[in-house]
Backbone:
């Protein structure tokens, strides 16, 4: 989960270090001698456990393979089957639904919370409480969340039936919705913290001036808060994109056990890969086919991050 | 300053918002309290009287989860694994991050970016080659294998985090040390590492949290019950319940064993954790 942090800063830093490369002090020269010995162990692990496997995934995706026998070349056939596989298409749609709908809802809620928290007493405490789910195991969150919605004995279900008289079967009829709301619950604290840090940098007198000029809360949000936090929001959007595609445990634990997958209707791409390889009581070991879907997933991450950064890029506002 | 700006706009909308925010906070605290209370209640009462406190005080639930359901063994595995991999991880990442932040060559900037790309790669995408690779060297279903994976797969984030930290340190002290005749290695060990202590501790804690909760890799690579980590113990416990009947008291006790150490850590070091996790976004 910690891995959810940003990639965006690295690009900026790359440019900065390049600029400072001009004069070479004796210290810098001696440091350079240490560059490779210092970087080599990390780089070797990175090449073996990230770069190699990514290339291998692409290679495997053009074959039929159960992981034991020989690889059987089959060209782009795996990809063609993917496009006809309703399980894959549904889980891909779920991934996108989580990315867009849960993402927008999370950001909207986070902004709303920020606007309220900004002026509220006990803001530090409340923010800390809201952040906490983010560092709890998603398996635990999923179990607790599921228990709340159990029918008829879950806490929220008993509350609901106490108020309305009806006893809905939430986990049976609307499992994916329950999961999505749960994801908003888990992620809101994290993104509220990020957005709040952006909002805190805005000088208070901007708000005072606009309030004197008679701006409404919405106008202040639209013309001050949003433009001045835009770069933070853009980075947060990249973080969300990356981390939303990695979501696995929170959905998986609704299947309940080490062996059972949840129903296909709530799968996302990550669960699809697991389900067509190692998961379930009768693992499929379709390594070639699953690799094809993994490559699709990787392409989607790449394209989305590049697109997001392009769309959300804006002139830096000085204030 | 803040007060004068907030005098306006305290309409019903804002007050409703404050109410909602507190409701959310109460919900989070409530879920946590419910978990703790249910862990100390008798199995049937938890759901038959969900809103009451009857049968409170069943400390046997914890004993049952700890010994009968394997949470004790899993806790030991997890603690050793998490502590070991977090320390090794930081030991490998720190020199690399230092070199990337300080050497100022063109290649170091490009390589920092190259490492950061790894953060964007979902582990599900590379799990198949990793599995085949570890199977060939006999490290599937072994804690050593899991340790190697945990170190390797957490590298990009750790290098990224520490590069930012080393980059933010003042260079003057290092220059002074160099003028006094310290070699670059000695400067790194005796000057830069102690200066970056805060960053190193943050990296250690964030990785410990992430690995403590890690489920996917463990799920794929560990099959034996004796080797399982805490999240697997929880999933496994839910599985045995399908056959041998549910025991929600013990289940909640198991959940507590997973959550309470994180809660303690959060209460103790919350600010550092939050700042470390959101560092990349708000700088």
Residues:
């Amino acid at each position: 989960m910690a891995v959810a942090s940003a990639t965006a800063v690295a690009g900026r830093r790359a440019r900065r270090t390049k600029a400072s490369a001009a004069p070479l002090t004796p210290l810098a020269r001696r440091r350079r001698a240490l560059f490779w010995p210092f970087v080599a162990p990390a780089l070797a692990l990175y090449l073996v456990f990230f770069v190699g496997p990514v290339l291998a995934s692409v290679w495997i995706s053009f074959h039929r393979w159960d992981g034991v026998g020989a690889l059987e070349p089959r060209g782009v056939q795996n990809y063609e089957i993917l496009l006809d596989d309703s399980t894959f298409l549904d889980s891909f749609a779920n991934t996108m639904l989580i990315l867009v709908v849960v993402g927008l809802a999370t950001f909207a809620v986070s902004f709303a919370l920020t606007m309220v928290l900004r002026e509220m007493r006990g803001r530090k405490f409340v923010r800390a409480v809201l952040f906490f789910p983010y560092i709890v195991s998603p398996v635990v969150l999923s179990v607790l969340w599921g228990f709340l919605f159990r029918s008829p004995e879950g806490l929220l279900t008993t509350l609901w039936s106490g108020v309305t008289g009806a006893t809905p079967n939430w986990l049976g009829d609307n499992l994916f919705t329950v999961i999505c709301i749960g994801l908003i619950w888990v992620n809101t604290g994290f993104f509220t913290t990020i957005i709040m840090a952006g909002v805190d940098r805005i000088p208070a007198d901007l708000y005072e001036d606009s309030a004197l000029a008679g701006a409404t809360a919405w106008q202040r949000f639209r013309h001050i808060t949003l433009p001045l936090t835009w770069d933070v929001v853009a980075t947060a959007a990249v973080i969300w994109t990356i981390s939303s595609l990695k979501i696995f445990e929170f959905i998986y634990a609704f299947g309940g056990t080490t062996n059972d997958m949840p129903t296909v209707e709530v799968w996302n791409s990550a669960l699809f890969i697991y389900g067509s390889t190692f998961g379930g009581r009768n693992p499929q070991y379709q390594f070639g086919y699953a690799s094809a879907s993994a490559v699709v997933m990787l392409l989607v991450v790449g394209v989305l991050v590049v697109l997001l950064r392009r769309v959300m890029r804006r002139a830096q506002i000085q204030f | 300053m803040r007060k004068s700006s907030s005098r306006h706009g305290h309409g019903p909308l804002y007050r409703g918002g404050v109410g909602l925010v507190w409701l959310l906070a109460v919900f989070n605290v409530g879920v946590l309290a419910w978990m703790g209370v249910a862990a100390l209640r008798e199995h049937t009462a938890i759901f038959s009287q969900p809103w009451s406190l009857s049968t409170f005080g069943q400390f046997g639930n914890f004993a049952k989860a700890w010994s009968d359901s394997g949470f004790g063994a899993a806790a030991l595995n997890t603690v050793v694994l998490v502590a070991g991999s977090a320390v090794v991880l930081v030991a490998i990442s720190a020199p690399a991050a230092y070199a990337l932040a300080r050497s100022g060559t063109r290649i170091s900037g490009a390589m920092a970016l190259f490492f950061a790309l790894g953060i964007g790669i979902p582990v599900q995408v590379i799990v198949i080659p990793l599995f085949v690779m570890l199977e060939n060297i006999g490290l599937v279903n072994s804690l050593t294998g899991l340790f190697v994976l945990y170190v390797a797969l957490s590298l990009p984030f750790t290098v990224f985090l520490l590069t930012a930290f080393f980059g933010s340190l003042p260079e003057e002290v290092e220059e002074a040390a160099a003028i006094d005749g310290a070699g670059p290695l000695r400067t790194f060990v005796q000057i830069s590492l102690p200066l970056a202590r805060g960053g190193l501790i943050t990296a250690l804690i964030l990785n410990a949290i992430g690995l403590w909760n890690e489920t996917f890799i463990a799920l794929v690579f560990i099959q034996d019950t004796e080797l399982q980590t805490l999240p697997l113990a929880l999933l496994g416990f839910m599985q045995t319940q399908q056959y041998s009947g549910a025991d929600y008291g013990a289940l909640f006790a198991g959940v507590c064993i997973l959550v309470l150490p994180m809660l303690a850590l959060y209460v103790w070091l919350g600010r550092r954790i939050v700042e470390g996790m959101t560092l990349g976004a708000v700088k």
About this structure: Confidence is low (pLDDT under 50) at residues 1-8 of chain B. Chain B touches chain A through 126 residues (CB under 8 Å).
